[in-house]
Amino acid sequence: xxxxxxxxxxxxxxxxxxxxxxxxxxxxxxxxxxxxxxxxxxxxxxxxxxxxxxxxxxxxxxxxxxxxxxxxxxxxxxxxxxxxxxxxxxxxxxxxxxxxxxxxxxxxxxxxxxxxxxxxxxx
Length: 123
Fold this sequence. Notes:
The structure is a single chain. It contains no helices and 11 strands. By secondary structure, it is mostly beta strands. Strands 2, 4, 5, 6, 9, 10 and 11 form a 7-stranded mixed β-sheet that branches. The termini are far apart. The relative contact order is 0.32.
């Protein structure tokens, strides 16, 4: 059974950091591009960033560029989102997702999704 399970969300003050993890099971990540998405209350889900199947190419939303980093550990079937300099506007439920496209940041191309983990940035 294909499954993605996020962890690592929580409460953090502005300027703080969190590292989200996403454990994949039921398939191997090697041939899948990975994306992280988020949905804030009352807003549509939006892309945070994505990494190609090879890991050689990453793209980020302008709002997180320079603060967030996506990485992958294919050997352990793990995905990560390192978030630094967090701000209240980063508050959202964060989702990891995979697509069998070699590289895509288009939300509609993503087939498998985790259940989401809440990140709340408050002062």
